[in-house]
Amino acid sequence: MKILSPSPRLPVPQSPLPQSTIKIMAYAHKITGAHPINLNDIDPEDDQGLDREEGEERLRALSEELTQLQELLYAASDHSVLVVLQGRDTSGKDGTIRAVMGPLNALGCSVASFKVPTAKELAHDFLWRIHQHTPGLGEIIIFNRSHYEDVLVVRVHKLVPEKVWRARYDHINHFEKLLTDHKTIILKFYLHISKKEQEERLLEREQEPEKYWKLSVTDWNEREYWNDYTRAYEDAINRCSTPHAPWFIVPANKKWFRNLAVAETIVNALRPYKNEWRKKLEVTGKEEKARIEEYRRQLKVSKK
Ligand code: ADP
Q: What CA–CA distance (Å, rounded) separates 233 from 214?
C-alpha cells in the first residue's frame, strides 16, 4: 500500500526553500495510484500525537502562509487551483471550507456546490455542469461535492447502468488531465470519518434546536449503504489518483486535525510555485515601470 507516512512534529517550513530541501509534513495520506488503498487501513481518529491547542496554532501559521500564497497566485495569474472536497454526510465539508478557506480573499476564491442534478444538467454529459465551474488563472475554486458524485451516489443507488458509471473513471482522468495541462493545480480530499463518529454527529444535531435545519432523514437512510459507499470511495480514489491529480485521505474524526491536514496539504502544494510567481510579478512590474517612464519622457518631449 503506497501511503506517504506522516511525519509528526516537524516544524512548519518558513522560507521558500527549493522543493527538494523542504521537509514535507504529511498529516493527510497522499494517494498517487501506485498501489490500491483500503479505507479500513486508515484511522479516522488519527491526530499524529498533536493536541488541539498545538494543532490550532499550526493552522494559524498555515492560514497566514496560505493567504500570502493566494495573493501571489492571484497577482501572477499563471496557475489556477481546484480543491475537491468529498466525504460522507457530516464529514465536515462545510466546516473545512469555513476554517481553511474563510481567511482567504473572496476576490479570487469561491465555492461551487453540486447537488442532485437538474433536468437540464441530466440532459448533458456528467462533466458539463462541472466544467463551467473550474477555476480560471489566478483563482481558487473549492468543489463542495463534485464530478465524483457520479461514481459514488450514482453507483450506490444504481442511478445509471454499471457500464455507464464504470466508463466515468476514464472520463474523469482525462478531464482532470485536461485541467492540469492548462495549469490547474488539483487537490482532492476525502474527509474520512468513522461510522460511529457520524452517528454521534447526527444525534448531536437533534440535541440542538439551532441545528435542526441540518436534519435530514436521508442522512440516516444513507448510513444503510455505508459499506457500498466505502467500496465506491475506494474505487474512485484508487482509479482516479494520479501524480498530477492525487487524492488525499484526511483523518476527519477530529475537526481541528482535519482542518490542519487540509490546510497543510494545500500550502505544501502551492509553496513550490512561490518563487516562480514572484519572479513573474517582478518582470511584469519592471516592464510596466519602464512603460510609465517612457510615457513621461514622451510627455516632456511633446510639451517642449
Ligand atoms: P450537502 O449534503 O452537500 O450539504 P445536500 O444536503 O443538498 O448538500 O445534498 C446534496 C445531495 O446531492 C447529496 O445527497 C448528493 O449525493 C446529491 N448529489 C450530488 N451530485 C449528484 C449526482 N450527480 N447525482 C445524484 N445525486 C447527486
A: 24
